[in-house]
Write a structure and sequence with these properties.
binds flavin mononucleotide; oxidoreductase activity; single chain; five-stranded parallel β-sheet; Rossmann fold; NAD(P)H-dep_reductase; alpha/beta; 6 helices; FMN_Rdtase-like_dom; FMN binding; 191 residues; globular
């Protein structure tokens, strides 16, 4: 397998975010040949405004789109806000979904996961995220569904993952499936 680089996007701006902590844990669990880069610009994106599309591309948007285009795949860890996804993540997806048909996420393999203190562990939010990605022709890993419930028991006050073995094995399995999906979508790149 050629080396693969995945871009990890956390849908939380919180300093001690459980979702960002989950992505950091994935970085440390990545198999040989897989690098995971954590995107940190979500809070710098302007609000999507269709009027801006006619003018110069905002620098933060160009930066995000370039990172996504250059990555072999993307990992999105989303919090669940009001049974959906946070506005900052939706804003990023709106930018990444344009221009229609030529957007950076089109045909880009994606893995989704999420952590929440509730019993459902972002199950509802992830459904919303999957529906959005389906709409913009983004292939998403089907299994495993990684819903990290009762996250307050698994992360410390700084957002560091405590490392429970079940979650770790799910994170490894999700990464392995993202590698498979990436191979299916660009076999020449991963041969
Ligand atoms: C505006 C808002 C809405 C929320 N709605 C939900 C929800 O619908 N379901 C849920 O499980 N948690 C909900 N939560 C709690 C978040 O899951 C919790 O704050 C989580 O730690 C956020 O993720 P983070 O740690 O990555 O920032 C909500 C939190 C906020 C701030």
């Amino acid at each position: 397998m050629s080396d693969l680089t995945f871009l990890a996007i956390s849908g939380s701006l919180r300093r001690s975010s459980h979702n960002t902590g989950l992505l950091r844990a994935m970085q440390s669990l990545a198999p040989d040949g897989v690098t995971i880069d954590l995107y940190s610009g979500l809070g710098t994106l302007p609000f999507f405004d269709q009027r801006l599309e006619g003018g110069p591309e905002p620098a933060a948007v160009a930066n995000l789109r370039r990172h996504v285009r250059e990555a072999d795949g993307v990992i999105i860890a989303t919090p669940e806000y009001n049974s959906a996804i946070p506005g900052v993540l939706m804003n990023a997806l709106d930018w990444l979904s344009r221009p229609t048909g030529r957007h950076a996420l089109r045909h880009k393999p994606v893995a989704v996961l999420g952590a929440s203190p509730s019993q459902f562990g972002t199950a509802r939010g992830q459904l919303v995220l999957r529906q959005i990605l389906h709409r913009i022709e983004t292939p998403v890993v089907a299994h495993p569904e990684v819903t990290v419930f009762q996250s307050h028991r698994r992360f410390d006050a700084d957002g560091a993952f405590s490392g429970d073995p079940v979650t770790e094995s799910l994170l490894r399995a999700l990464l392995a499936e993202l590698v498979v999906l990436t191979q299916r979508h660009s076999p020449a790149r991963t041969a």
